[in-house]
Each structure stands twice: as C-alpha cells, then as structure tokens.
Amino acid sequence: LHKNLYNISSIDRIVVCYNRLNESIPFNIGLTLPTIKRPIPKDIERLLRPKALVFAQNQLEDGLSFINSLTNYSHLCRIDIHQNFFTGQIPKSTANLSSYLRFINLGDNPFPLELSISKVCNGCIFNKIYFAA
C-alpha cells in the first residue's frame, strides 16, 4: 500500500480482500489512519438493507439516538459500537431491533451499565452480547 494513503484524512474504510498484493500490509495501518470523531450521521436511515453496522474503535460521541433509526432494518444481524464515547441511556427502541440480530457490542463506552438484557433486545437470540470492557 502506498505511503501517501496515510495522508488522506477522509478515509473511513479500506478493504483489501480478494486481491493479489505483492507486498505486506503494514501491521500498524489501523493505528496510523485517522479515527472518526463525530456523532453518527442523522441520515443513517437512508441505508438500504444493512446486515452489519460497525463503528467500533473510533471517537464517536453523543447519545445512542441513532438506534431509533435502526428498527426498520429487518436483516440487521450485527451492531458493534465498542470503544467510543457514547453517553446516556440505551434507548428503549433497542428492544425493537431485528430478530436476526445475533451480535451486539456496546462495551468501552461511558454510558451507565445498569442494563438489563430485556431492555436491550426483546426476542433476539444472541450468539454474543457484550456490555463491558
């Protein structure tokens, strides 16, 4: 990967699968590229049929109100927002998330952890659920 790639501040994802790279990918690529530092965009509900939403290990902040817009995603099976700066309570609308939801990681965020699993998702069958670091 070209060294100038590290100077592009607007990059939010690099996918290097299914190719024939002749060189190795630097081990620290995730540490040197910028992290996202803002609330999750309000127009997230414009996504068509996401199966996974992963905003992990950034510096996202604000509350979790974006979860309200995820209740229409009937095929959503994974949410990972660990290691950010989300605050406040987990919205009650989380209980209305997709019945396909199998993995949710909310750990390493400064919101209160007095959570009950029934408040997070009602009727979901989780393979993995994480609340704490």
UniProtKB/TrEMBL annotation:
<dbReference type="InterPro" id="IPR032675">
    <property type="entry name" value="LRR_dom_sf"/>
</dbReference>
<protein>
    <submittedName>
        <fullName>Uncharacterized protein</fullName>
    </submittedName>
</protein>
